[in-house]
Structure prediction request, 419 residues.
Amino acid sequence: MVLQNIKIEDFNVLLDPENNFWTIYDHEIPDRIIETYRRLKNELDAKMEKYRSEVDFNTVYLNITERCNANCPYCYIPHEIRRRGKEIDVDLLSDILNSLAELGIKNVVFHGAEPLLSKDKIFEIVENFGNELGFGIQTNAFLLTEEDSDFLKEKRINVGISFDSTSENVEDFLRGKGHYRKVNEVLEWFSGYRGFHVITTITSYNVNELDKIIDYLAGKVELILMNPVRGTSLGGRNLRPDPNVCAEGFIKAVERAIWHTKNGKRITIGDFANVLLGIVSPYSRVLQCDISPCGGGRRFFAITPEGVFPCSEFIGLEDFRQPLSILKDPEKIKTSFANLKGRRVECIDDCRECAFRNICGSPCPAEVYAEKGSLIQKSPYCDFYKKVIEHAFKVIRRGDLGSVLRLERLRKVYEIFET
Ligand SMILES: C[S@@+](CC[C@H](N)C(=O)[O-])C[C@H]1O[C@@H](n2cnc3c(N)ncnc32)[C@H](O)[C@@H]1O
Ligand code: SF4
Ligand code: SF4
Prediction:
C-alpha cells in the first residue's frame, strides 16, 4: 500500500498519489474503503499511467500573427518576436488547416500574440472549416466590434478575453490604455453567451483583488480562468506574487465564486474546478497544466509563423521549436518534444514523495526551463498549489463540490456502499 495520510484542519485525507484514490475520514477508515482500494489499485494505476503518457492531440493553438497591439509587461511572447511580427500567409494557412483535420485535431484556438490583427483571415477560416473543426479565440479584445461579436456568436465560436483588474488605472497600466472600458463594452455584447470566458493573469498587482474581480464579473460571465503569471519572461518573473499570498487571494476568490453560484449567479474559476476534477475524476481533467507530463506536445501544441511548439508558453524557447513541415508527418509530430514528455513529477527531487504530485504536476515546465535552464525543477508556486489542493478537499468535505463542478456532467464509475 502506498496510501499517504494528510491532516487538514480537523479531518484526514488518505490518498494514493499514484492513482489519486482517496477518502476523507475523521477517526477510523472504514474497512470497505480499504478493501475497495486493494481491489481497484492495479486498475486505477493503469488508468492514471495511460492518462499521463498517452499522445492524443485534440487542440491546437494557432498563432497566425506574431504582432500585438499591446505590450503587457509579463507577456511570455518575447518583445522581439512581437516587434518582428511575422504572419502566416493565406495559402500556408489553408495547408495547415487541412493537415490539422488529418491529424484528428478537433479544436483550433486562435491565439496570440493578438489574433484579431488577422481578423479577416480568421473569419475566412471559420467560414471554410467550420464544419470540420471547432474554433475558439483568445484575444485582448481591443479590435473587437459589436458586429464581430454577432458573427462569433452566430458561428458558436468560444471567445476568451483577458481582464486583470477592476481598477481602471491598473487595468490600463497592465493591458494598455483604454482596455478597462473596452472590456466593459465587450462584456455587454457577450452577456448570456455560454461560449464566453475571461482570463485573469494573477500578478503582484491584482493578487489582493481577485475576490473583487469575481464580484465584478458574477452575472456577466460564467467561466473565468485565474492563472498565476508564469515567469517564462523576465517581466513575468518580476510580477510573480508570493505563492502564499497568491493562495490566499485565490482562495478568497474561490469562496466568492461559490457564494455567487449559491445565490443564483453561477461563476466558476476554471483552474479550481480543474483541481477538484484532479481529485474526483482524475483521468478527465480538462486543463492539462497540472498533469505530469503536462498536455504540451501530447494533447495540444502551438503553431506560429516560425514553427511548432509544444505549448504557447514555449514560444520564446528556441530549444522546443520544430519546423512547420512536421505538420505533414503525423508520426513525427507524435514523437516530437520527447524531453517535455519525459518530465514526470516523480523525477523532481522535492516532488517525488509529495502526496499531491498527481493533482499538482509541478507546473509550468516552460516557466522552470526559462528560469533555471532545466525542466526537472520544482514549480515556484509549490506552496500555492499545496494550499489550493488542501482547500479543494475542504470544499469537498463541506459538500460544496456541486457549486463548482456541474455534477450532472460527470459519469459515476465506482460506488462504495455498505453491504
Ligand atoms: C499571450 S495572450 C494571447 C492572446 C491575446 N493577445 C490576449 O492577451 O488575450 C494569451 C493569454 O496569456 C496570458 N499571459 C501572457 N503572458 C503570461 C504569463 N507570463 N503567464 C501567464 N499568462 C500569461 C495573457 O494574459 C492572456 O490572457
Ligand atoms: S498578453 Fe496578449 S495582449 Fe498582452 S502583449 Fe501578450 S499577446 Fe499582446
Ligand atoms: S510542486 Fe509542491 S505541491 Fe506540487 S508536486 Fe511538487 S512538492 Fe507537491
